[in-house]
Amino acid sequence: QLTLPDETITADHVVSAVPAAALAEALPPEAEPLARELRHIPAASVAVVNLQYEGVSLPVTVSKVGRGSHGCPKLPGVTPARPQGFGHLVPSSEDPALLGIVYDSVAFPQHDGAGPPSVRLTVMLGGAWFRQSFGEPAAAAPALLLRRAQKAVRDH
């Protein structure tokens, strides 16, 4: 049960989206064994960089060699491998700073604007290797993260 000022909610399951240590502090005293376990779960920082390239189409939607499904040029240096895709993850053995790239234009086409065709991507950087790759999360330079995200799109 979750008791709020104006109601009580009864649930079979609770899904938490806060860091484990923060959840540990929110639990009641009788849940101390669980709170103790939660405090031992490490958290990792992730930088999320959203990119948009106008006048190009994503290689996963290519219908003609060298041209995207809207007739726009493909992203430079990228070869299409599949007809569709949500995105891809990158193993840390290949690139420890890069977690993966979500093809927002494919995954969420309803968010495309009415203007000229464009590609929207979300690049996820860091994770367990954030400090090693970018330094302290609070001090990570946005320009460095942007450059690294753009490089990830070119290389992966």
Automatic annotation (TrEMBL):
GO terms for cellular component: mitochondrial inner membrane. GO terms for molecular function: oxygen-dependent protoporphyrinogen oxidase activity. This is PPOX oxidase. The keyword NADP does not apply. It comes from the Eukaryota. Keywords: FAD, Flavoprotein. It comes from Xiphorhynchus elegans (elegant woodcreeper). Pfam families: Amino_oxidase. Residues 6-133 form the Amine oxidase domain. InterPro entries: Amino_oxidase (IPR002937), FAD/NAD-bd_sf (IPR036188), Zeta_carotene_desat/Oxidored (IPR050464). GO terms for biological process: heme biosynthetic process.
